[in-house]
Amino acid sequence: MNQYIQPSTTTASSRIYDILRKDLVNGRFAAGEKLAINALKELYQVGLSPLREALNKLAAYGLLIQENQRGFRVPTLSRSELDDIVKTRLALEGMAFEQAISLGDAAWEANLLAAEHRLKCADMTLDNDDEWERLHTQFHRTLVASCGSIWSLRFIEQLHDQFDRYRRLGPKMPVIRQELDQQHHELVALALKRDVKAARKLLDEHILKSYEAALTCFAQHG
Amino acid sequence: MNQYIQPSTTTASSRIYDILRKDLVNGRFAAGEKLAINALKELYQVGLSPLREALNKLAAYGLLIQENQRGFRVPTLSRSELDDIVKTRLALEGMAFEQAISLGDAAWEANLLAAEHRLKCADMTLDNDDEWERLHTQFHRTLVASCGSIWSLRFIEQLHDQFDRYRRLGPKMPVIRQELDQQHHELVALALKRDVKAARKLLDEHILKSYEAALTCFAQHG
DNA sequence: ATAAGTGATAAAATCGATTATTTTTCAGGA
DNA sequence: TCCTGAAAAATAATCGATTTTATCACTTAT
């Protein structure tokens, strides 16, 4: 494992960080909203110091905006930023996937099959969205895990969180969702066949299709 | 300006963040070293709360490693990580530069010429390394500034900081330095000519040459 | 009617002290 | 001599209170 991953025993600060990160990605707070620190303190039943440390980390990570003497705000959403996120994902994730296919060993293949299977199982049980989201994130992480670039993986994860802020706002789209699920399967198949070209092409399509889905969040909301 | 930039009035936390970030990039603390928070408190004459907030942000940014209940450490340096940083820079910065040349307007051209000129002036006065570093960073930031992708710019800046941790450890190399300075001038010339292909090629060479210089930090140290 | 000032209120940032955890030290036993 | 584990010391994390800064409602002057 690499030195940039944190765990070991857990602190109030890291716990609240994980929770807030998830809540921010899930759109629990409105875009542009100012976070009232004292309210958060009550809401999450946590002290001021660990809370502020978590908020500071989230701001450095890009899930919050920090303005000196004015606390923290949720970043606004815009079509142009979504476009940027998607373009950057296409480039970074595409390269990483190609590398991952070239470099991936048997353990990676096994992880990939396992991640796909777990995701498929979660697809069946229609409730428990949270769990599906977790497995979906894990699946995409596994796709590129063997690319060999710690920094690319880091950036890709950050972009996924940003992208998901948009995607999870939109309405459920069973048709698109089904197509995306189908692509998950095909991505694994192409990856295992080491068909770099075709896999890359399909990943691009996959990202663009989910972009399509994410775009609908503007139709509904602002 | 974009919402991810912070300024306005300044707090103890943001002040100490800027200082620590610079000191970390400059190698003031040894790689792998554990930071004694109380010592930092004395050293920078700052309270515990703002200091911890700054450290948390730096950890999220990648200039520190945070381990629960064990405080903060300076990330170690390794050949393989440097390779990763350089490869990722080549990809991200290369794309961004191509875009920047395509999209840059007259204001960008003016900024570019200004940044180059300031850097050249700093080249003359051999003392004041800090100022040169600042202008050098600013020059490279300007090169890609008009690429249109907030997220790429963000990642590129992060990678520059990481790269500079290595570069600034090595010995001064006047010959390579002179070649790099020459390339700065040529990069501007090609960018203004909108010669995307040649500019991209030169930027790649530029990054690889500074990689060469950064590599020497391993010859000296570990 | 608008703009600039003023005081009250709310909120953010910071401090000093306390609590929890890790690390070190050292005595006792194999 | 080398473990082992308990006590002591050091350090990280957190809390509660204080200070500083922004915000809002209101007054006064242009």
TrEMBL record, chains A, B:
Single GO molecular function: DNA-binding transcription factor activity
SUPFAM superfamilies: GntR ligand-binding domain-like (SSF48008), Winged helix' DNA-binding domain (SSF46785)
Keyword NADP attributed: no
Classification via PROSITE patterns: HTH_GNTR
Protein name: Transcriptional regulator, GntR family
Entry keywords, A to Z: DNA-binding, Transcription, Transcription regulation
Lineage of origin: Bacteria, Pseudomonadati, Pseudomonadota, Gammaproteobacteria, Oceanospirillales
Organism: Halomonas citrativorans
Domain of life: Bacteria
Residue intervals of the HTH gntR-type domain: 10-77
